[in-house]
Amino acid sequence: MKAYAFERASVLLVDDSVWMRVILRQMLKSLGFSRIHEAEAGDAALALVDSAPPDIVLVDWDMKPMDGLELTRRLRRLPGEARYVPVIMISAYSTLGNVLAARNAGVNEFLVKPASPQTMYHHLVSVIERPRPFVEAPGYRGPDRRRRGASDDDTPRRRSTDHQSPPLGPADRPLSQSEITAIMGGATTLPAQPMEAGE
Amino acid sequence: MSTHTAPDSPSVRIVQPPNRLKSKVGRGSPTLPPTVPPTFRALVHASAAAYSRHLDDQLHALRALATGGGAAATETLFAIAHQIRGEAKTFGFGSVGGTAESLCAFIEAGGPGRARGGTVVTLHVDTMAALKADCDARGETAGAQPLLDGLARAVRHVLSPERA
Predict the structure, then answer these.
(1) How many separate domains does chain A show?
(2) Is residue A193 part of a domain?
(3) Are strands A140-143 and B2-6 parallel, antiparallel or unpaired?
(4) Does B156 fall in a domain?
(5) How far is B32 from chain A, CA to nearest CA, in Å?
(6) How far apart are alpha carbons B50 and B90 in whole angstroms?
(7) Which A-chain residues 74-103 have CB contacts (< 8 A) with chain B?
(8) Could you read off the pLDDT of B50-61 as tens digits, one per residue?
(9) Domain containing A53: what range?
(10) Mean pLDDT, rounded, of chain A
(11) Can you give the CATH number for the domain in which A32 is found?
């Protein structure tokens, strides 16, 4: 199968660490991206989104003064189609509390440091092939979190288990990437036949 | 773009936005193309020497902060250790990153405020410097594990002396 034409897509990389930006830029280049825009702070990222809307945003959690969660919330409140942009959060902290906070801020995918080309590609394929509907509710704006393939997937109701803590053990235990993917609402393995995109 | 409201919650709007990313990149393999990892390694390798010098600067800063004490110094110390934790492994200093992770956990558990906490912080910084020198000389080796095990015992001794 041929490779994705990543060179046609633009990506915005937001991280206040110059060396993390080096790592992620090299990773994106090795995947074929050539239109890589970078920002070291949330305000600069929002300005870039305004001037040249990216096709995907990679954002670090731990930034100051605006962290990745707040940046994601602001992106989700933008007017127009910019608010739908897929957001991949990158963090070294993969505890249940952090993953749920990212999910509730409107993040699409959660990537645990140290990032590898394999995990980055997995998350990219997920947002490309399995886009989620976008929910706009009084307390939440972001990707629909209902589990893919669940029997109630065609209804707007939440799963009854959404208000319960997943049986994952201590809240400060680092989660595995597959546990995180399940919490974010996705399948832990990619489908053999990728689904058609929404449009 | 399709839009509808939730039947049992009219204030909830559900939108199926256009998949701009898919429309641009087209179809592709669900698995990572095999050419990507070596390309990535080569790109990172080209930056490794500069990162090594940067890591030396960070370790010097950590050493100064480890003996400084105070809440502000501890906060800065944590910020630097947190950066090392996230970056070092990718550039071939995995054991240094592992030690930084242990230091972050120790600080988050309030270790620097405990009796002999400062000694354990200094021990982490010395260990990172020694492992960094090893990585520079011989590359990443399995020889770091006894050091990391020893650090874990020191951390337990300070945080939970009754169980150490």
Answers:
(1) 1
(2) no
(3) unpaired
(4) yes
(5) 6
(6) 13
(7) 81, 84, 86, 92
(8) 999 999 999 999
(9) 6-183
(10) 83
(11) 3.40.50.2300
Question: Could you report the per-residue pLDDT of A78-118, keeping only the tens digit for each?
Answer: 999 999 999 999 988 888 888 999 999 999 999 988 889 99
pLDDT at position A75 is 97
In CATH, what number is assigned to the domain containing residue B140?
1.20.120
Q: Mind listing the pLDDT tens digit for each residue in B1-10?
A: 677 777 777 7
The better pLDDT of the pair B153, A48 is held by A48
Q: Which member of B13, B24, B47 has the closest CB to residue A8? A: B24
* Chain segment A107-164, per-residue pLDDT in tens: 999 998 888 999 999 999 999 999 999 999 988 999 998 755 544 444 444 444 444 4
Mutate one of B2, B4, B12, B40 to test the A interface: name it (highest A CB count within 10 A).
B40
Minimal Cβ distance to A19: which of B8, B32, B87: B87
Buried b (16+ CB within 10 A) or exposed e, B9-34: eeebbbbbbebbbbebbeebebebbe
A92 closest CA partner among A105, A109, A111, A107: A111
- Laid out side by side, the sheet with A140-143 consists of A140-143, A134-137, B9-16, B2-6
Contact A198 B17 (CB under 8 A): yes
